[in-house]
Amino acid sequence: MLNKYPMWKNLMVILIIAVGTFYAIPNLFGEDHAVQVVATRGAEVTATTQTQVNDILSTEGIGVKRSELENGQLLVRVANSDQQLLAKELIAQALGDKYIVALNLAPATPKWLENLGGSPMKLGLDLRGGVHFLMEVDMSEAIRKMTEAKIGDFRSDLRSERIRYAGIRNTPKGIEIKFRDADSLAKAEQFLKTRSNDMVFSDASSGDNYQLMASMSEIYLKQIKEEALQQNITTLRNRVNELGVAEPVVQRQGAERIIVELPGVQDTARAKDILGATASIEFHMVDERADAAAIASGRVAATSQIYNRRQGGQVALEKAVMLTGDHIQGAQPSFDEYSRPQVSINLDAKGGSIFSNVTKDNIGKPMATLFIEYKDNGARNPDGSVKMDKIEEVISVATIQARLGRNFVITGLDHSEAQNLALLLRAGALIAPVSIVEERTIGPSLGAENIENGVQAMIWGMAVVLIFMLVYYRGFGLIANLALSANLIMVVGVMSMIPGAVLTLPGIAGMVLTVGMAVDGNVLIYERIREELRAGRSVQQAIHEGYGNAFSTIADANITTFMTALILFAVGTGAVKGFAVTLMIGIATSMFTAIVGTRAVVNGIWGGKRVKKLSI
């Protein structure tokens, strides 16, 4: 019996291990201390900005290892943490408050290796350091906004049905709708009940005072809160990604809170600025009746309100909201036929229908985009919730050229403003403001200590396994050790290849566990070969039977463990997911190295030969 692999199978084993090794190599180069510069509020990071920053650092004697301008962001690498802190301070002073200047850590992978697709594993907060925020969603504001939307819907619905009403307002008990007679109230109640299944209506009339009260059902209130939390999670994740923070973690905690982790970012104050885009967008019609003198004196109609413009000056807008930013699905900066900057907006189906109805009668009139930002002022409300400051400013005013639907453009911006507005709209609007209730910073030194401890545990664990296999199985033990080393390299390579994979401290624990599980397959194979040799089989028969009969046992054990890890990944969060990911990858690679890899080496050494004795 000959134990020989065909050439293609040997080449496949070599190729797979070579690919794993190539993608694992970038992890040897470590990270550089870096300063990240991102533009905000109408500014733009350009080649001129890059030159300015490089000149500033050169003047102060700070050596720049590499300066990279990509996707509107500048990353400047320096030699050490002291130079990093000084560089951050100098750049922030020179550029002003229209730029976010944050401390960061950047992979030190050589450029040629990056060009070939090589990149190191993404490290979690516990290994890389960074900032952690626990944010709370203001559910009362979410309910208030939905109540205001319902009031608007009631007004338009009653008008469309020609049902007269005396007034609609929000009260502590619910939405109050007044009528002049009982007949109008009865018609309105019957009609609104068919249109608003999520509202509870009750007749609150007394004497000649005809009133209909509408309140949200418990199921609807629960739905509003859940949607507010989920949309805010999506929006925060989008905004952090858009602003260039690498591998952020944004996930829910409980019914009203969100965890945000920004690995690599060491400046808590600047990290808050990055999350300062937690704002909403609204579209309003400009009140053309209000002239400059009236706006300056504050005398505008009761249905209008004066807002500051980002570019300077003030403008009066009608209070009625045409559309909120939560209907925006996409936004891209572009240019019109005259090469003027604009932002192309894409709405969802509901938003397109709403916008079509509100703009058809306002063609040729100016429309404003209102940016609303909520900031934590550090105080608390009487109910214990975080007190928020509301900052509102008009970021653009454009003329409605035609009836708008799901797709339209915003004009009147310069290039940098168009870029920033598109970024903000792409990221989406928060359905309710959020406040930071807890924050902590994990320094890079603590992260480095965690990495060192994890690597030490892996080294010692692997050393014990390697010595045992070498002593107990001799030549075959050496082959198992080679397979074990290849397995560890492949785990690192696969982790580096997967875009969303993040290595955490529990992930290192999963890799340590994989070391033990990887060698377990070889132990089963080698013991089976020993049994076959004791039973009087020839060397070639023993090798064949050992690998063939042990396969089912190895597969059963690894498949059940893989399914367990898959369940942990599906239902777990944070650290549990990190452990499950490395464990699943380790199981898959160990099956390959323990069965296919070692068999290729064994076949290459002993296959096809008349061997009377094995070193096992």
Can you describe what's shown?
- The protein is an alpha+beta fold.
- The protein is 49% helix and 25% strand.
- The chain contains 16 helices and 23 strands.
- Helix 1 runs antiparallel to helix 13, helix 14 packs parallel to helix 16 and helix 15 packs antiparallel against helix 16.
- The model has no long low-confidence stretch (mean pLDDT 82).
Q: In a nutshell, what does this entry contain?
A:
The chain is α+β, with helices and mostly antiparallel strands. Helices cover 49% and strands 25% of the residues. Helix 13 (444-497) packs across helix 14.
Order of strands across the biggest sheet?
A: 15-14-20-19-13-16
| Approximate strand percentage | 25-35%
What's the number of helices? 16
Helix content: 40-55%
Multimeric status of the protein: single chain
Residue-averaged pLDDT: 82
| C-alpha geometry | elongated
Coarse structural class:
alpha+beta
Q: What attributes does this structure have?
A:
6-stranded mixed β-sheet; alpha+beta; 16 helices
SSE topology sketch:
Elements: H1 7-24, E1 31-39, H2 47-59, E2 64-70, E3 73-78, H3 81-95, E4 99-107, H4 111-115, E5 122-123, H5 125-128, E6 130-137, H6 139-160, E7 167-171, E8 174-179, H7 182-195, E9 199-203, E10 210-216, H8 218-242, E11 249-253, E12 257-263, H9 268-274, E13 279-285, H10 292-297, E14 304-309, E15 314-318, E16 323-324, E17 328-335, E18 341-347, H11 349-359, E19 366-380, E20 386-399, E21 407-410, H12 415-427, E22 434-442, H13 444-497, E23 502-503, H14 505-534, H15 539-571, H16 575-606
